[in-house]
Amino acid sequence: MRNLKEAMFYKKLKEEKVNCNLCPHSCVIPVDEAGECGVRKNVEGKLYSLVHSKACALSIDPIEKKPLYHFFPGAESLSVATVGCNFSCHFCQNYNISQISPEKVFGDNYPPEKIVELAERYGSKIISYTYTEPTIFYEYAFDTMKLAKEKGLKNIWVSNGYTNIEPIKKMAPFLDAINIDVKGNEEVYKSLCGASLQPVLNSLKEYKKHNIWIEVTSLIIPGYNDSLEWINFLSKWINDNLGKKTPLHLSRFSPQYKMLETEPTPLKTLEKLYGAAKKKLDYIYIGNIPTSRYGNTYCPKCGDLAIRREGFKAEIKKLKCEKCNEKIPGVFD
Ligand code: SF4
Ligand code: SF4
Ligand SMILES: [Zn+2]
C-alpha cells in the first residue's frame, strides 16, 4: 500500500476495530475499511491516513478568496488540499476532489518540507489548508503547519468546523486564522451535508479560546437558509460567542453538483440578510456577486471607507479610521 501514516486521535477496540476521534462522526471502523471521510483506513487493527503528503490541489491564491478579509489583506497564500471530506454537501464546488476515494485520485507527492519550500520560493508567507476539509488530512496539515511556523510562515484553515476539541487544542499553537462555513440550521446539516450543527458551533468557541483569528461564512441557498430567522440566529450567536467584530461573509449560491435545479441566490435576498446581520455585527460582506460594493470594509462607527476591494484585490487604505480613530480588527502587517 502507498505511503501510509498512522493516524492521530484514535482508539483500538475489540476484534481489531478502531474508533476515530478526529471528528464528531466518531467512526468505528472494521479491518480493511475506511471511515466516512474515505481517507482514514483500518489496516490490521491500526488507523492510517491515506493522504499524508498527497496533494491533489496546489495553487497560489489571494487571501481574499478564502475568504479572509481581516488577515493580511492583499496577501497571497499557497493553498493545499488532499482528496476527501467528512461532509457530503449537495452543493460542493469541489466535489470532484472532496467526494472521491484516494484510490481514484492519488494526488502528487508533496511532503511537508516541499510545501514549505514552495511557499518560500514563491514569496508566500501564508499556507492555506483548503478546497476540501483540512480535518481529514489532519496529520499532513499538522506536520506542515509545524514546519511552516518554524520558518516564520502563517497557517490558515478554510474548514467546515467539524473537528473534535482535542485535535483543535493540539494544532492551535500552529494555526493563525480560520474561516468556518456555518451551513445552516440542523435540518440543512442533516439533509444537505450529512452532519450536524452543534459540533461546528463548539469548535468555533474552541478556536476563539485559543485567540485564533476567526471569520465565518454562510453560503445562502434559496429555500434552505435564506430566511431572516437563520441570519438572525447566526449573527446573534456570533455576537454572543465570538464577538461583534467577527467578520461574517454571506456567500451567493450558484448551481453546483447535486443542486443544479436550485436557482442562484437573488441579490435582493442577500441585501435583506446583510441588513439584518448588520444590526448585530460590525463587519458583514457579500461574496460571489458581480458588484464589489459589499466587499469593502467600512468603519462601523462613522462609515468611512477603510479597505477597498475589487474582485479579490484589496487596497489597504487604513487599519485605523482616520475620522474617528476606530481600530479595524484583524491581523495585519
Ligand atoms: S475523520 Fe473520517 S474516519 Fe475519522 S471520525 Fe471523521 S469521518 Fe470518521
Ligand atoms: S464541507 Fe466543503 S469540501 Fe466538504 S463537501 Fe461540503 S462544501 Fe465540499
Ligand atoms: Zn470611523
Please, could you describe this protein's structure?
Helix 7 runs parallel beside helix 8. The protein contains 8 helices and 19 strands. 24% of the residues lie in helices and 23% in strands. The strands form 5 sheets. Strands 8-9-11-12-13-14-15-16 form an 8-stranded mixed sheet. The chain has a 3-stranded antiparallel sheet with strand order 1-6-5, with no helix packed on it. The chain has a 3-stranded antiparallel sheet with strand order 2-3-4, with no helix packed on it. It has 2 domains: 5-49, no CATH class; 54-316, TIM Barrel (Alpha-Beta Barrel). Strand 11, helix 3 and strand 12 (154-159) form a beta-alpha-beta unit. By secondary structure, the chain is of the alpha/beta class. It has helices at residues 95-98, 112-121, 138-150, 165-171, 186-193, 197-209, 228-241, 267-278, and strands at 5-6, 10-12, 18-20, 28-29, 40-43, 46-49, 54-55, 57-62, 76-81, 108-109, 126-129, 154-159, 177-181, 213-220, 248-252, 284-287, 297-298, 305-310, 313-316. It starts with a strand and ends in a 17-residue tail after the last strand. Bound molecules: iron/sulfur cluster (2 copies) and zinc ion. Zinc ion is lined by residues 299, 301-302, 304, 321, 323-324, 326. One iron/sulfur cluster (SF4) is lined by residues 85, 87-89, 92, 94, 98, 132-133, 160, 193.
Topology of this structure?
Elements: E1 5-6, E2 10-12, E3 18-20, E4 28-29, E5 40-43, E6 46-49, E7 54-55, E8 57-62, E9 76-81, H1 95-98, E10 108-109, H2 112-121, E11 126-129, H3 138-150, E12 154-159, H4 165-171, E13 177-181, H5 186-193, H6 197-209, E14 213-220, H7 228-241, E15 248-252, H8 267-278, E16 284-287, E17 297-298, E18 305-310, E19 313-316
Parallel strand pairs: 9-11, 11-12, 12-13, 13-14, 14-15, 15-16
Antiparallel strand pairs: 1-6, 2-3, 3-4, 5-6, 7-10, 8-9, 17-18, 18-19
Helix pairs in contact: 2-3, 7-8
Bound molecules: iron/sulfur cluster (2 copies) and zinc ion.
